[in-house]
Every structure is written in C-alpha cells, then in structure tokens.
Amino acid sequence: MKLTVYSATFLTFVACATNVIFLEHLVKFSPGCGELVTFAQFLFIASYGFITVAKFGTESPKVPIREYLFAVVLFYGSSISGNLAFECHISMPIQMIFKSGSVMASMALGVLLLKRSYSLTKYVSVAMITIGIGMCLLFSTKDQKNESEPEVNFFTWLWGVFLLTCSLFMGARLGVCQEEIALKYGKYPEESSFYLHALALPGFLFFSKKIYSQASIFTTSEYFELPIVQTGIPVIWLYLAVNVATQFVCIKSVYQLSTEMSSLSVTVVLTLRKFLSLLISIYYFQNPFTIYHWIGSALVFTGTLLFTGVLQSVLSFSKDSLKKTN
C-alpha cells in the first residue's frame, strides 16, 4: 500500500474526528452558530478553489456553470437544514447516527429516480439502518418528553428531526445529480467542490443578520492569550478556525482516498471514522447514550457495512483463509 494511502487514511481519521470535536464545542457555546460555521467553511474552500482551480478567474470550468446550479441548490439546502437542526435539542451523537442513514436515502432515490433494482441483501441492510435510526430516535424522544418543558422541547425536537430528514434526502439527491454530471462531462472533483461552495455563498445573505449576531456572540467568549504578539483573541474564534481547517483537510483526505482506493475501501474508512467520532462525542462531552442507543448504532453501522459489501468480503476472506490453513 502506498505511503499516500496511509497518510490520507490517518488524516481522514484525525482531521474529521477533530472537526467533530470543535464543532460540538461551537454548538455548545452557541446552538445557533450553524450558519456562521457553514459560511466560514464555504468561504475558505471557495477562496482556496478560486486560487487553485479557477486560477484567479483565468481558468474556464470543464463543466458548464449551468450544470452546477441545481447541485448548488441541493448542497446549500442540505448544509443549511442540517445546521438549523443544531438549535432543536438533538444531540451530536444522534445527528451522526442519523447522517449515517445516507445509504438508505440514496437507495430510495435510486429506485424512484434512476429505476434501479437492488439485491435482497441491500434491502435487508437498509431495513437494519432504518430500524437502528428509529430506535435511537425513539429513545431520544422519551428523553425529550421527560424534560421540564415537554411540549416546547418535544415539538422543537420533532422539527429538528424533520430538518435532518430534509438534509439527508437533499444530500442523497445531490449524489444523484453529481453522478449525472460525471456521466455527461467526466469527473472533476476539485472543480465540483469549488463551484458548489462558491456559487452557494450568495445564499448566506438570507442569514446575514444571524451570522453577524453569532459573530458578536463569539466575540464575548473568554480570551486566549497569544504570548508572541502580546494580545488575545476570543477562544471560540480559534475553535472556529480549527473547525474550518480540519473540515478542509478532511475533505481533501477523502478525495485523496477516493483516487487511491476502491469505493468499498473508502466506505470502510469513512464508516470507522464516523464510529470513532461517535465514541469521542459520547465520552468526551458526556452525551447521554443508553444501551438502546448502542443497539441502534450497531444496526446502523452493520447495515452500512452490509450494504457496501464489506461484511461479505470479510466473511469470504475468512473462509478462504480457513481453507488454506486446513
């Protein structure tokens, strides 16, 4: 295996897990900061792409801009709806488990839009994912009903679930859209990433007041002293900078893996990365997580591995190894 694969895998685990940690720090400080965080991420990636992909506006895109417009709407909608859910009392572990249901949404749209048919194994795996997410949501619902303002919290929580569902299916539809573009024009992942982020930036004008308000709230956080320049900076702004940087490294590492490894291997890495992030969120932030949540999580991750064929490959490899030893 190439050194680049090892380094990309390592960076995927470290950068993506670190990103989740600092995102949760930001959300715990101010639950309404989702739009500010997303805007900062989009602006950074768009700026980087303007330099490296667009060559300061001198490089023409390989894919016509009009082809990206629908994908931009889906990408923006998926990102915004997912971030709005932060304000609805849904814990970070539940959000991560919910997002792991992307294969379920992709399969549903594959059947409805692309008229694809799937094997019985894939239907079973999607059923496992659905049951697992349902279990996590069911027992999280009970926690919400036990809180001091059950009506407000529960209906706010339900709105958060709706937003996460919208985000999940818009993300899946985005995947179909990108697949259609790739079949028509070829694969240009860096160009696609740049235009999806850059063309979505005007959409943040709708949230300009809220972004400004959240920026003001960030400024009220305790200061982190910078010894070299003899001054300080609000620590939450440092958390945001780390979150943006690790998001960028995470995306770049996943792109690197996709060029060096099979899609199956990439899925394994990403599934393990999500599980690591889940563990960190539960233990580092002491998020409530019952045995039923663990069972639901196991169903989601097992279903994901089953859907991608990972479990079948592992079982096949184990049988072959036993035959050789015998």
SSE pattern, N- to C-terminal: HHHHHHHHHEEHHHH
How many helices? 13
Percent strand: under 5%
Look at the structure and give the mean pLDDT: 83
Number of strands: 2
Shape: globular
Major sheet characteristics: 2 strands, antiparallel
Distance between the termini: 28 Å
Give the helix proportion (percent range). Answer: over 70%
Membrane topology: Multi-pass membrane protein
Keywords: Membrane, Sugar transport, Transmembrane, Transmembrane helix, Transport
Subcellular location: Endomembrane system
Organism: Hydra vulgaris
Overview of the structural elements:
The protein is mostly helical and 326 residues long. It contains 13 helices and 2 strands, in the order αααααααααββαααα. A two-stranded antiparallel ribbon has the order 1-2. A hairpin with a 4-residue loop joins strand 1 (223-226) and strand 2. The chain starts with a helix and ends with a helix. The relative contact order is 0.18. This is UDP-xylose and UDP-N-acetylglucosamine transporter isoform X2. Belongs to the nucleotide-sugar transporter family. SLC35B subfamily. The chain crosses the membrane at residues 36-56, 68-86, 92-113, 120-140, 152-172, 193-212, 232-251, 263-285, 291-315. InterPro entries: SCL35B1-4/HUT1 (IPR013657). It is found in: Endomembrane system.
